[in-house]
Amino acid sequence: MKTIAIIDDDIHIGDVLEEILRQEGYGTLRAYSGTEALYLVSENKPDLILLDLMLPGLAGEEVLAKISGIPVIVVSARVDVEDKVHLLLGGAADYITKPFDTKELLARITVQLRNSFTPKTDSVFSVSDLSLNCLSHEVTVLGEPVRLTKTEYAILKLLIQNPNQVIAKSVILERISADTPDCTDSSLKQHVSNLRKKLRDKGGRDYIEAVWGIGFKLMEH
Fold this sequence. Notes:
With 221 residues, this protein is of the alpha/beta class. Helix content is 42%, strand content 21%. The protein has helices at 11-23, 34-44, 60-65, 81-89, 102-117, 150-160, 169-176, 185-203; strands spanning 3-7, 27-31, 48-51, 72-76, 94-97, 124-127, 130-133, 139-141, 144-145, 167-168, 208-211, 215-218.
């Protein structure tokens, strides 16, 4: 039985969703706040999440940024196209607007669960002898694990997804800001320096090149 987590502080809507899903043979989990949602997900690992945005505690957007490896369908009353684009680019698998049609919601759930059966070819990124697993957050060089801080991991993930492409400092800061608010323009250089040293210590060579006046890039060889 597939389990779906319903994250919504509106008890009535949550009850409706739970009844619909149970009739379709799904198991359900409930959370009513952003903080409770993160605890629920970490303890139970549902197969899919239905996420409202207007939550007490952590907002839905903040919850979404902290979830990986589980498809998330945002269920929200917001209809603005910019909101939808931002959330889809931010990691949401799909977006459905309240009030929703039951058949449409169930169809979208079916599609996401079907897709989750397919091995994610982009869950592991490898460049030469450097590898990063987006699901386990494990980084290895020559098969040996490398311990990185959250900020170092976020920087490396962005670079390894775009090998041999120069990523501007401003772009790096913008792309990793949700996960690493501690990283600033003044501290970015030090974070990259620490990351380069850790990779060089394991692999015996430089993996990241600083492009003067622009940013950084990951070298394939």
